[in-house]
Amino acid sequence: MSKERARRREERLREQAVLTAARAAEAERRERRAARRRALASWLPERSSRTGRPSGVIAERERRQRTTTVVLLVVLNVLVAMLTDGWAWPALSLVVSALAAPVLHTLLFRR
User: Which residue windows are transmembrane per the record (predicted)?
Assistant: First the structure.
């Protein structure tokens, strides 16, 4: 009976050693990855805020205006794609809308 118990304990200890080694290897991989990320992040400029984008009334208004312009252009391109056959008109519509987006934005939201 004691030999059987000793054999089981030895087996448990062996399994624990394998799990401990696997955890140590995983922790080492995580630490190496974190070190690489820190090294790369040191090359980047610091962010001034947590979100990375300006906040405030003016910034919110500009975001809303940009979103409106993009939505209008997407709706226009979808309509052109649905109402025409082939690929030429939708492709031309994409190019023209990309070029005309600043003009449309200025006409819609004059400062």
Answer: 67-83, 89-109
Residue 36 CA to residue 42 CA, distance in Å, equals: 10
Residue type, 89: W
**CB-CB contact of 80 with 90 (8 Å):** yes
**Other residues' Cβ atoms within 10 Å of the Cβ of residue 46:** 5
Query: pLDDT (tens digit, 9 = 90+) per residue, 27-62?
Result: 999 999 999 999 988 888 876 555 667 888 999 999
Neighbours of 73 (CB within 10 A): 19
Of 104, 33, 27, 18, nearest to 66 by C-alpha is: 104
Cα–Cα separations (whole angstroms), residue 27 to 14, 35, 40: 20, 12, 20
* DSSP symbols for 42-84: TTSPPPSSSSSS--SHHHHHHHHHHHHHHHHHHHHHHHHHHHS
Domain boundaries, given as residue ranges, for the chain: 1-44, 57-110
Q: What would the two tokens of residue 93 be?
A: 């519509």
